[in-house]
Every structure is written in C-alpha cells, then in structure tokens.
Amino acid sequence: MVIASLVWFLLDVFERETRKAEEQAANMVINQLRSALVIKGAEVMLSRQGRLDDQEGMNPFDLVDHQWPNYAGPCQRPESDPGTWCFWRGEEAGKAAGPDGWLIYTPKQPITLYGRNALGGEPLAWTVTTDFADRNKNGEREHQERSTGLKLAPVLLTEKSVRAQDAGH
To answer: What is the per-residue pLDDT across 68-92, written as a single tens digit (0 to 9) for each?
Structure first.
C-alpha cells in the first residue's frame, strides 16, 4: 500500500513537471517570435517602402534563423500533431486583401499559455497583426490611430473559422 501511494505521488509530480516544461518551452517559442516581430516591424517602419498592414498574416517562423525541432512547417489540416507548431495559410472570410495565416500549436497535455487554457490535443492559434496606438482605449483601431508595430494576436479556433480557412483551399 505504501509503495502504491509513493508511485501514485511520483507519477503526479512527473505529470506536473512535464506540463510545466511544455508550458515553458511553448512560452519561449512565443517570446522569440514576438521579439522577431518587433524587429520586423521596426525594419518595415524604417524602410518607408513597405506597410505594416502588408505583413499581417505572415509566418513569424520565417523571421527566425533557427531550426525548430517541433515546427512542422505548413499545416496539413487546421490542427497539428500534439507537441508541434505549424503554420496554416488560407483566405479569411470576407477579407478582400491577401491570404491570412495562423500559427498553430497543439499541446500534448493541458497547459496554459498567456492566460489561454488548452486541453491536450486542443490547438491554440495566433495570427500576425498590426499593433496600434489606441488613443481612446476602446480596443478597436480607428482610421486616425496609426500602426506602431507587429504582434501575435490570439485567434479563436471555432468550427466556423476552420471552415472559412478550408474554403480558401
């Protein structure tokens, strides 16, 4: 009985530590991609030849010169294999501009990334979008509020959004 309790306790500790390690690894990837987007945004703004809006939906992994062992490249479907990152490219419904892309991570187990909870095997998604000076603090970008850089914004993966993305292919 004592050995069974000890084994149960050790398995619980192992699971908890594995979850923390996966959260830290995923947060590290997100932080590195966010840093790369800050640099890319500054380059675009300094060059004066491009527009930040033209960078929306881009694959942020293309900005980092690193071979990521858990980055699978383009997604074959809207969700990736557990423990991997992929990039889903499609057409956003109702958007006349070019293609829109999503960065997708599917955790192996329940984790929390920047306040977003995900069950194991449940994908989380982000897209590259422009950040702006929100002068009136309403969270919506008005015409007079200028772009200030690039950022990763969370995307809610719903059945409707996945179908809209699939329609682009």
So the answer is: 888 988 887 766 788 899 998 875 4
Do residues 131 and 147 make contact, with C-beta atoms less than 8 angstroms apart?
yes
Domain that holds residue 85: 2-167
Q: How far apart are CA 68 and CA 142, in angstroms?
A: 37
**Percentage with pLDDT > 90 across the chain:** 25
Phi, psi of 41 (to 5 degrees): -60, -40
Write the DSSP assignment of the chain as a string of letters.
-HHHHHHHHHHHHHHHHHHHHHHHHHHHHHHHHHHHHHHHHHHHHHHSSS-GGGGTT--GGGGS----TTEEEE-SSSSPPTTEEEEEEEPPTT--SS-EEEEEEE-SS-EEETTEEE-TT--EEEEEEEEE--TT-SSS--TTSPEEEEEEEEE---HHHHHHHHHT-
Separation of alpha carbons 169 and 164, rounded Å: 10
- Residue 30 in contact with residue 111, Cβ under 8 Å? no
Residue with tokens 């449940």: 122
Residue whose token pair is 């004066």: 48
Q: Domain count of the chain?
A: 1
